[in-house]
Amino acid sequence: MLPSPSSFVAPPATLLHDQHGRPLEYLRLAVTDRCNLRCFYCMPEEGITYLPRHELLSYEEMLRLTGLLATLGVRKVRLTGGEPFVRRDLLPFMERLAQLPGIVDLSLTTNGVLTAPHVPALARLGVRAVNLSLDTLDRARFAAITRRDELPRVLATLDALLEAGIQVKINAVVMDGQNIADLVPLAALARDLPVDVRFIEEMPFNGGSHAAGPAALPWNHVRIRRHLEEHFGALTPVPVPAGATAAEYAIAGHRGRVGIIAAYSRTFCGTCNRLRLTAEGGLKTCLYDQGVLDTRALLRGGAPDAEIVAALAAAFRYRAANGFEAERQRPLHQLSFESMATIGG
Ligand code: SAM
């Protein structure tokens, strides 16, 4: 159950480790594949073909699975998608998730377009941190990148989160030729506001176009850091919790941290503690695998809890050592075929 923000205590050690000794305690749950933005690095302009509603896991199914995962050691759940607030009745669902024994940290990742009016309810639920996706502070560039003119509503969400005292991490994808001029203004938000700002390497999960390998990535983590240091001076590494994907840095005079997530270079796989459930119930034990278990088939086939738990535990025992191995093991070696919106970014 979620502790009240003031009574938070460290969770007990996880019960479950993969065959490489990594604890599995963090679930990223895609509650929908639908999104109200059309970010070009995530989806084609016409959007992806959305799943018919009956192919999405129902909230009941998600609760059952999350409850079982909690018995195996999952402690933290992050809702993602698609855009979580596009799915109806998200908040009552979150309330029930927060009640599950063992779940001590519930958070979400949102594009902020529909979020502001729900912020007080999130605070009441005990949500302590929200990841807000924001790639630029320039309205025209925002509209070009997301194909929607929604920057004002996103900024209203940022204000509402800060006002409610919810910790904010801003996530920006770094896109060659698109938002490089935005990196410094975005990092400056961590100077002017009590927020962390993290820069993510662009990955090829865009639902369409060709994917070049990470060696060809124009803006990798090394170049992003160098670019920020040219403007702000030294980025001083700070310790991060086990399982973190971001390398975090302090900058003199900044209130928040600046982070860099080497999502395509995959420098952090050795400590990865994440599981993902796609909106249709595909279990991923690595962002780069193609799904290792069809939980929906188990759930809808009438499998008892013990059978589902056994299937989950078996999937964890075959977890790829890292994202490169997972990519090699894909039956179709094609990352760009997928969209982050269906994966649950
Ligand atoms: N709609 C929510 C949001 O925007 O935060 C949650 C889902 S979105 C797919 C989650 C995150 O994945 C966003 O921060 C988005 O920028 C990121 N993302 C999507 N496609 C990506 C890509 N090709 N490379 C890197 N990050 C990507």
Description:
With 345 residues, the chain is α/β, with parallel strands linked by helices. It contains eleven helices and twelve strands. The protein has helices at 59-72, 90-99, 119-125, 139-146, 151-163, 183-192, 221-232, 295-300, 305-317, 323-328, 340-343; strands spanning 26-30, 76-80, 105-110, 129-133, 167-174, 196-201, 236-238, 246-250, 258-261, 274-277, 282-284, 293-294. A twelve-stranded mixed beta sheet has the order 7-8-9-6-5-4-3-2-1-10-11-12. A hairpin with a 7-residue loop joins strand 7 (236-238) and strand 8. Helix 1 packs across helix 9. It is globular, with a radius of gyration of 19 Å. The two termini are 25 Å apart. The model is unreliable at 3-14 (pLDDT under 50). S-adenosylmethionine (SAM) is lined by residues 35, 41-42, 80-81, 83, 109-111, 133, 171, 173, 200, 202-203, 205-206, 263, 340-341, 345. Residues 35, 41-42, 80-81, 83, 109-111, 133, 171, 173, 200, 202-203, 205-206, 263, 340-341, 345 line the site of S-adenosylmethionine (SAM).
